[in-house]
Amino acid sequence: ERARENGRNMIAIERLCELPLAERRAGLEDLVVADLKTTLVMADDEDLPFDMSYLELGFTSLGITESKERLETQLGRSVSTNVLFNSPTMEHLIAYLADDVLTDIFG
Q: How confident is the model over 44-71, as pLDDT tens digits?
């Protein structure tokens, strides 16, 4: 079970690494948007505002924590709970992931 989960982690990371550097942020955005839409039970064609607080979008602290855990699983990296709660927008989350968590991929 754990080996299969680790394999899925590598697939998400490998997909990002396979993209040209100029397209990686868009790939990361797609990953984050899909995860947050799953948490909010949104349809694929619904827009998710990048500059609106998670709480304004309907997230609860439990939903934010669940999304954090899924992102950690998909990326194979730790994601700061403090960042999620202190800068609660997709815009900030994507910048944090690209600039602080995935520096080896976005460097």
A: 888 888 888 888 888 888 988 999 999 9
pTM of the predicted model, to two decimals? 0.83
pLDDT in tens, 9-37: 557 888 888 999 999 999 999 999 888 88
Contact (Cβ atoms closer than 8 angstroms) between residue 103 and residue 15? no
- Measured distance CA(11)–CA(33) in Å, rounded: 17
Instruction: Round to whole Å and give the CA distance between 11 and 43.
Output: 24
Q: Which residues are registered as beta bridge partners of 53?
A: 89
Give the chain's count of helices (H) and strands (E): 7, 0
Residue identified by tokens 């709480």 is: 55
Tell me the one-letter amino acid at 92: H
- The CA-based dihedral angle spanning residues 58, 60, 63, 67, taken in that order and rounded to the nearest 10 degrees: 80
